[in-house]
Amino acid sequence: MTTLVNVIIMMGMLVVVPAGLRLIDTPPWVRLVWVAGAVPGAGSLWLPRGTAAMVLAIVYATATLTLASHAAMRAWRHRSLAPREVAVLTALATPAVAGLSLVWERAGHWLLGFEPYILALTVAHFHFAGFAAALMAGLVCHATGERPLSTAAALTVPGGTALVLLGYFVGDWAELVGAVVLTAGMWLVGWLTWTEVRRGVSDRLTRVLLSTSAVILVATMALALSWALGEATGLPHPSLTWMAATHGVCNAAGFALCGVAAWRRLRPLPL
């Protein structure tokens, strides 16, 4: 399972985030810094936990903090709380959570009460439920003219991501609330992708990619809800291993990878 999680994380570091950054108005140097940090970060995943792996992870964490700093500068420059902008800023900022988690995980230490395996899942989570999900919400909001439903998606995805992170520290019920909000936002993104964005696309491959990205969210977010509900109530629910093999793989390959590929083919103006 460690190998599978590592592959998912590498997909986020080396493919999804670099491709996604080209859909955001980011300077070339920011994208270059990301790649310069992501390559050693990916390499750190395959070393035994210890000093060498931690040093490579620190290089990656520096790249994520650079992205977060760019988000802060962008927020100061735009001074806008438009829903689309909230989603974009969330996409730029959340990889920093992954970067911090990876440093501690590669060092083999617990962080804030979380063991290394949970930290590894956190790294994966904030590439996809953080960066990719918020980016898709922003893109859909922009493409559909910032209607009420798309505005709701652009706000609930970042809001749900923040609540899930808060739930790590507050407790399972808070995490369940976050999962409900995030699922609602993701289902809205999927619905609008299927009914609005896909409708105006003539290229067959792009339509297939958009359809796959939208449909996969129905199952993957249902799994997320099932897991969060089970954690909060004690009801039977999938294990973390099962979640990584189903929810994790499908979200990474089906939702994020297909979605980013489709939007790159659509070539919208950068957000």
TrEMBL record:
Coiled coil: none annotated. The keyword Transmembrane applies. This is YndJ-like protein. Keywords: Membrane, Transmembrane, Transmembrane helix. The keyword Transmembrane applies. The chain crosses the membrane at residues 6-24, 53-73, 85-104, 116-140, 152-170, 176-194, 206-228, 240-263.
